[in-house]
Every structure is written in structure tokens, then in C-alpha cells.
Amino acid sequence: MLRSKRFNFELAIPDDAASLAALHTAVAKHLTGLRGHGPWSAETSEKSALYAMRTSKVFVARQGTEIIGTLRLATKKPWAIDTDCFSTCRRPLYLLAMAVAPGKQRRGIGRLCLEEAKRVAKDWPADAIRLDAYDAKAGGGGLYARCGWKERGRVSYKGVPLIYYEFLFT
Questions:
Q1: Of 27, 32, 34, 89, which one has the greatest count of Cβ atoms within 10 A?
Q2: Domain 2-168 is classified in which CATH homologous superfamily?
Q3: How many CB atoms lie within 10 A of CB 29?
């Protein structure tokens, strides 16, 4: 667990499910208000948050008791990822569902969450972290690129344009 002046970074627990659903829904509504309706506009349920905790490791960034950010790390390849676009490795992790509360964005929290994801992945152990981002103004591709992640491809999955990013531990 990371403790900093900004937040604590730790594994989510089932009691966090309602807050996680509310965070993801708030981010979806915020993006929809800024960029219009898109695949980012879906609301998240508490049941979905609990499922994510059962199938992956969900991490939260807390300020006091408030969850201000989250991300998931999973060993199972998500459906929208084409592994042919990525570097060959034996133990990749997949970063999913990263979100920062709308009122806390553009303050370095996303960057710190990515650093923590790398720390966790090294200890897992993993040799890479892979992700996809929307290839749209609502996507987080700019953040990943600024944080040193390498673009590995651009694809369209079910009509949704995506950019693949990867961070290698070699």
C-alpha cells in the first residue's frame, strides 16, 4: 500500500463496491458531458464492481475515506485486446477501468496511479502491463504517452477505435 500526502493506494474490498460504482458512473457522466455520448457513457453497477473484484485485483486511491481513483489489474486478456500488437512476453498484466474522480482530475493522481500499477506489477511478478484506450478525445491515450507507455497499435473493435499501450519491465 502506498501512503502519500495525496492518497493511499490499496486493494479494494467488497465494502467499496458502491463507491466504486458511483465513481465509474460519475466519470462516465463527466466524459459524456464533455465529449458527447460514446462507449465511455455506460453506468456501472455495484454488482459489476463486485464481479471485477472477484476476477481481478481492483485498487483504489483514497483521500481519507473517499475513493478518488481506481484501476484494475488482471491476468486474463480482455476481449478487445489483440496480443499480436504487443511485445512477446510470458507474464503480461492488463490494466483496466482506470478512473479518477472528475473533481480530482488534472492533479497528478492518474500519473501516480500508473506508477503504483507498475510497482504492483513488478511484485506480481509481471513482465509487461498492457491496456487499451479510446482513440477519441474522451480517451486517456495522452496520459499514457506522457507517462512513458509505448503505443503498440491502433485498432477498431466492434466499431470502437482503440489505441493499445504497453509498459515493459525489461
A1: 27
A2: Gcn5-related N-acetyltransferase (GNAT) (3.40.630.30)
A3: 14
pTM, to two decimals: 0.93
What Cα–Cα distance (Å) separates residue 113 from each residue in 2, 8, 60, 73, 120? 10, 10, 9, 12, 10
φ, ψ of residue 158 in degrees (nearest 5) = 50, 40
Helix (H, G, I), strand (E, B) or coil at 153: strand
- Tell me how far CA of residue 109 lies from CA of 71, 79, 85, 102, 116, in angstroms: 12, 27, 28, 11, 10
Q: What digits encode the pLDDT tens for the residues 108-155? A: 999 999 999 999 999 999 999 999 999 998 889 999 999 999 999 999
Residue ranges covered by each domain of the chain: 2-168
Q: Which is nearest to 154 in space by CA: 144, 163, 165?
A: 163
In the chain, what's the furthest Cα-to-Cα distance?
42
